[in-house]
Amino acid sequence: MKAIKREMRRVILIGDSSSKRTLFFEKAAKALDVPFRVVDWEALTETSALDLFEGAAVKIDPPSYSIVHLSQMKEQLEAYQRTLRHLAKADCAFFNSPETICRMLDKRETNRRLKAREILVTDMFPEEIKTADQLEETMREKHCYSVFVKPSCFSGAAGVAAFRMHPRSGNRKLYTSCRLERGRLVNTKKLTCMEESVRIRRMLDDLLALGCVVERWHPKAEFQGKSYDLRIVFQFGHIISMVARQSRGPITNLHLNNQAMSVEDLELGETIQQKIASVCKDAWEAFSGISVADSESKFVFGGANMAGMDLLLEKGTMRPRIIEMNGQGDLIYQDIYNENRIYLEQVRILSGI
Ligand SMILES: Nc1ncnc2c1ncn2[C@@H]1O[C@H](COP(=O)(O)OP(=O)(O)OP(=O)(O)O)[C@@H](O)[C@H]1O
Ligand SMILES: [Mg+2]
């Protein structure tokens, strides 16, 4: 027993001491009797000493933000990215390296990287679109009248908007969970639909000024009258969790009052499931740089060991398309409140048991 313990790597979690992520990761470490500590984001800055991480296995969870103004979120995100770049200098074994987390935070970079490998992704416009005028002009040129506008590096659906414009009548609809409050964009947890063109264009101008990607709005497969997409957690070379997110609106994120459901209930069939597994495997390899066979149940040093993949199935064809990948997208309530398999596997492999 002692011999095994000596070979164990110390595991450090950078996160918020009181978050669910920390609570359940710690629970996994205790269950496996692995030496573990939390370093709170509050104790870290862009210049902090890094010697405490030396020789440890380090997982970086996101800080919990309480900010609601999108412009402040942008500033906070930039500071976060600077701290990640500083952390990259630590002499330790990262679960997902800070560079990997930053790369996946960037929706354009993720989309490009996957597309270069001919992996089916959401159809992103290559143009940098800065204003509502430019957006509508581009939509007309492409004959694409339904789009998603998404801040390039935000998460949790902050600033995500689904926009539809009728080519002849010019009628417009914008679905988003943010709203303009005293001239400032505020993030909420409630999806609303705007129909007034002047207000929509103002909102789009403000959103696009944050730095956004624009994508074709792909109609999603439906189950019992609601559309859904999948959040898949892929780690150590395999899929460990798949949850469907069902919604009446176009944006499926679960904090927007949408429902999680088990993928088994969708009865997807063998062929579709194989296609999903194959897209995930290819996406994984595009990021980790090594083959699934070589990373199966092993710790890969210096790159990616986990990705939370958002994947939609096209309505009709059921072809899987990757929407985005999240380098910290592993918090799955259905898992932590049941077997806690995701974090147990992480702790086991990180510590080298
Ligand atoms: N091009 C698209 N076509 C159809 N639906 C889309 C498209 N892009 C995004 N969505 C929907 O909007 C949701 C949010 O988009 P996305 O995952 O890119 O944003 P996010 O803020 O990074 O979310 P999170 O960080 O919570 O994963 C997706 O889960 C999906 O339901
Ligand atoms: Mg997402």
Shape: globular
Low-confidence stretches: 1-6
Look up the CATH topology of the largest domain: D-amino Acid Aminotransferase, Chain A, domain 1
Protein structure class: alpha+beta
CATH class of the largest domain: Alpha Beta
**Rg (CA only):** 21 Å
* Overall number of domains: 3
| Residue share in helix | 25-40%
CATH-wise, what's the superfamily of the largest domain?
ATP-grasp fold, B domain
Task: Write the element-wise H/E pattern from the N-terminal end onward.
Answer: HEHEEHEHHHEEEEHEEEEEHHEEHH
Distance between the termini: 11 Å
Outline of the structure:
By secondary structure, the protein is an alpha+beta fold. The chain is built from eleven helices and 15 strands.
Report on the architecture of this protein.
- The protein is an alpha+beta fold and 353 residues long.
- The chain folds into three domains: 2-94, Rossmann fold (3-Layer(aba) Sandwich); 102-122 and 220-348, D-amino Acid Aminotransferase, Chain A, domain 1; 132-216, no CATH class.
- 33% of the residues lie in helices and 27% in strands.
- The chain contains eleven helices and 15 strands.
- Helix 2 (20-31) crosses helix 11.
- The N and C termini lie close together (11 Å).
- 39% of the residues are buried.
- Bound molecules: adenosine-5'-triphosphate and magnesium ion.
- Magnesium ion is lined by residues 310, 324.
